[in-house]
Amino acid sequence: MVTYWIDKYFKSSKYFTINRRPVVVVFSPLRLEMDGHKFNMDVPSLLKRARLLGNKKGLKDIYFVASTGYDENNNLIYKYPPNSYDAVSAYNYHIGISNGIPKKNSYSYQELIAGYKYTWNKILSDSDLPYIIPVSSGWDRRPWGGSIPPEHDMSYGNPKEFGNMLSEAKEEIKLHQDKA
After folding, report:
1. Helix pair angle (109-126, 159-175), 10° resolution
2. In the chain, how many H helices and how many E strands?
3. At 57, phi and psi to the nearest 5?
4. Domain boundaries of the chain, sorted by first residue
5. What is the pLDDT along the chain (180 residues), one digit of tens a residue?
6. Which of 17, 39, 109, 147 is such that its CA lies 20 to 30 A from the CA of 58?
7. Which domain of life, per UniProt (predicted)?
C-alpha cells in the first residue's frame, strides 16, 4: 500500500507536503494499531517501515498526522506513542460545550465552536506533538441519513460565524507558533 502511495501520489507536485515531506493523515490511529498487531508490529514500527520505503525511493520522511477525537465516554484521544506520528489534527469534532460543560454532541453552531475551542486548548496545552488546528463550517449529516440525535444536525453556522471561527483559529496559531 505504501509503495502505491509513493508511486502514484507522493511524487506529484500537487501532493500536499510539509517541509517537502509527503503528508498522510491516519483517520483511525486505533484501527492502525489493531491492524498492526495482526502482523506483530506496533505503530512506531509500521510508520518507520513506511518512511524507510519512501527514503529508498528518494523521498524525505513521510509526515504522519494522527486524527484526534473523542471516544464513547467523551474522553479526548490525542496522545500517541513516541517516535510514531509527526503531528495531530482531526477530521471533525462533535463535542459541544453548553454552560461550560462538555457534552457528547453539539446542538448549535455556538456549542460546536465552543467544543472545538475547548479541544484546541486541551491539545495545545498538553500534547507533545504539533497540532494542525481543524475548523468547521458546521455539522449536518442529513444528506447521509442524519445524526442520532437529529438535533446534532443543526450545528452549522452562517458565513460570518464561520469567518469568526477562522479568525479564532488563526489567533491560536499565532499564540502557539511552536505547536500549531
Report:
1. 10
2. 5, 10
3. -100, 15
4. 1-67, 96-180
5. 999 999 999 989 999 999 999 999 999 999 999 999 999 999 999 999 999 999 999 999 999 999 999 988 888 999 998 889 999 999 999 888 888 888 888 999 999 999 999 999 999 999 999 999 999 999 888 888 888 888 888 888 999 999 999 999 999 999 999 998
6. 39
7. Bacteria
